[in-house]
Amino acid sequence: MTNTLVRTYEPSDRERLNALFARAGADSPSGELWGHAASERAIYLNPYLDLEPRSVFLAEAGGELVGYLTGCLDSAALPSEDERMNRAITEHRLMRRPRVIGFFARAVLDMAWAKLRRQELTSGGFADPRWPAHLHINVAPEGRGTGAADALMAAWFDRLAEAGSPGCHLQTLVENTRAVRFFERTGFRPHGTTPLVPGIRHEGRKMHQLTMVRPKADAAS
């Protein structure tokens, strides 16, 4: 972590963070969505910057942003992912964009396939009072191996301790084995089932959601 600095987000960081959002994680299973950065930010980034900026942390190496963590102390305080998705579809007119239409058409086919085979599908957000907080973390390729991810998580755990949070959860993909190993190393453990995520593909393969939890008792000292 010699040349890595982690700090809280400032409004003046927004443009650089938007650029990082568009490329961080692009080579991972979670990096392939529908290819429209503005609408993806409206769902997975902007609500955190607007509603809980104190829980957003940035990692810099050599003066460049190489990673970020968006957190929420109480998931119930954030609009649900379904609400954010529906708003983005309307505001960005996503159903007029061919690539986006292809993604959602594939999602519909996935849901039909799963129903026929009685396979479980993702069903909105995760709510459990034991783990009310949640986070998302992304580190660009040039930030890996610099200690950026560990430093971001340490800052987030300090935030949780300061707030007296009872526990934290996150959702990743079963197939993102690198991320799963990292989260296990930082104290998270798998929880519940691993449903299919409609529409998502990585190298042609279907993806499955993995929920992980970290109780307060496991928090880093």
Structure write-up:
The two termini are 18 Å apart. The chain has helices at 14-23, 37-44, 46-51, 81-91, 98-116, 148-163, 177-185, and strands spanning 4-8, 56-61, 64-72, 133-139, 167-173, 189-191, 196-202, 205-215. Strand 4 (133-139), helix 6 and strand 5 (167-173) form a beta-alpha-beta unit. It has a single domain, classed as Aminopeptidase, CATH 3.40.630.30. The chain is 36% helix and 25% strand. By secondary structure, the chain is of the alpha+beta class. Helix 2 runs antiparallel to helix 4 (81-91). Strands 1, 2, 3, 4, 5, 6, 7 and 8 form an eight-stranded mixed β-sheet that branches.
Keywords:
Aminopeptidase; alpha+beta; eight-stranded mixed β-sheet; 221 residues; globular
User: Which series of helices and strands comes N to C?
Assistant: EHHHEEHHEHEHEEE
Rg calc: 17 Å
Structural class: alpha+beta
C-alpha geometry: globular
Mean pLDDT: 91
- CATH architecture annotation name: 3-Layer(aba) Sandwich
| Unreliable stretches covering 5 or more consecutive residues | none
Helix content: 25-40%
Can you give me a brief rundown of this structure?
By secondary structure, this protein is of the alpha+beta class. Helices cover 36% and strands 25% of the residues.
